Fold:
Amino acid sequence: MTDEPLSSRKSLSETGRSEEGQLRQVGRAFLLDLYTSLRSLKLYPVENDQVQRALTDLQRTSQTLIEMEDPLEVRITGEFIFVNETRLRLNLDSYASFGHVLNTLNQCGVGVLTVGAGVDRREWQVLISLLLDASNTPLSADKLSELSQKMVLGGVTHIAVDPPSAQEHDVEDEEQKKEIAKHTYERGVAVTKEVVNSVRMGRSANVKKVKRAVQGIVDQVLSNEVSLVGLTTIRDYDEYTFTHSVNVCIFAVAIGKRLGLTRLQLYDLGLAALFHDVGKSRVPLEVLTKPGALDEDEWRIMQSHPWLGVLTLFGMRGYGEIPYRGMIVAHEHHMKVDLTGYPKAIRPRNLSVYSKIVAVADAFDAATSRRSYQTVPLQPDEVLREMWENPRRGYDLVLVKALINLVGIYPVGTCVILDSYDVAIVHAANPDISQINRPVVRLVLSADGQRLDSGPLVNLTEVGSDGNFTRSIIKVSNPERWGITPGDCFV
Ligand SMILES: [Fe+2]
Ligand SMILES: [Fe+2]
Structure:
């Protein structure tokens, strides 16, 4: 696979582990210092020796972490504390201290604490006092902004506090949900772009940023799947390379969620999915973007993207660890379950479940996207039928079924004609699987041909006073025929 001797590969991964280990260790020490500072400042006046010592320790460990990575980010996701992207486990020793920090931050409405280089001891002291004050009063909507203001007044310029990511507090407002999903999606596209461009230019990519973006996507899929899956319908041709990776990541994570994978497994799967085509960044652009059919040589180059992906991932070590699951997915995602795809398997092998999930997500997104101005994307329902019925496509049928459950028989973004003669775009699959042929749709053209700007959402399970369904789907239609861009209904 590479010319690198085996021994040097081993040492690479060992370096990775030790860096990761070091971060974990300093991260724990930092949380412990934060805890000690909170406790001692609660019990004693600020001049007290113990308080002063605690603040000195806190300043020192934060400094060490910032030297490792600037800025330092402490993030609370559910029951986890992340220091940068390393998750710190609660164990018996740390249960009381970490739990206390978690509670205090929760009480103050803080989900993310960002600390930049240049932070000093005095700023920590102000922050700790403010956190102690704030944690004594009931949580309210503007508590965090009050805390922020007091920090600014107190001269704290190197520490910022932010609310928990959207999934942690229930956002009821539909518009707000859309905004958050859009932000998550755009961040995903931006980091993918950065990675692809870095690889093209032979620079090392910032995997840490990518990991955080993927965590954002996973968190969103777990809390607000509909808005995020809706955005996959944008399928912007000019940005295809990047949006495709983000879409595959979203679909893969949503399938993984249906299979019952844990949040941490979903982080891994999402990262692998985002990187599945990273090898394409090493394929010459004239081959990658050639509008017509590829000749034999070009096709061979294109088919090398799985192992080019493995090579690229070897060069990417965010905090040292080698993303080996991502490598397997990059290598296997075109192999097909019967191994008739590429690269050719030398021996019999079972594809990893992550590869099989990514293959399904990849196929669906690729076939429903427009990849050049000459090609017309297939309608989503046709794609699903082909994946389900044609065994030569080589997908795992259980996973195709999970995809159908996710997107519905009429996937999100499908243009449909109703028996009321309205034209509508599918907004979300029906959460009730027994009603999979009755999604929630947004009306876009009324029966008399009137364009409805932000038309109403209609649940096709709605029943009229006569006991019959108010509206049903007659057939799927091509949105272009009606001058409709499905993606517009989701932004
Ligand atoms: Fe691929
Ligand atoms: Fe792909």
Q: What stands out?
A: Residues 276-277, 305, 333-334 surround fe (ii) ion (ligand 1) (CB under 6 Å). The first helix runs from residue 6 to 43. Residues 1-15 have pLDDT under 50 and may be disordered.
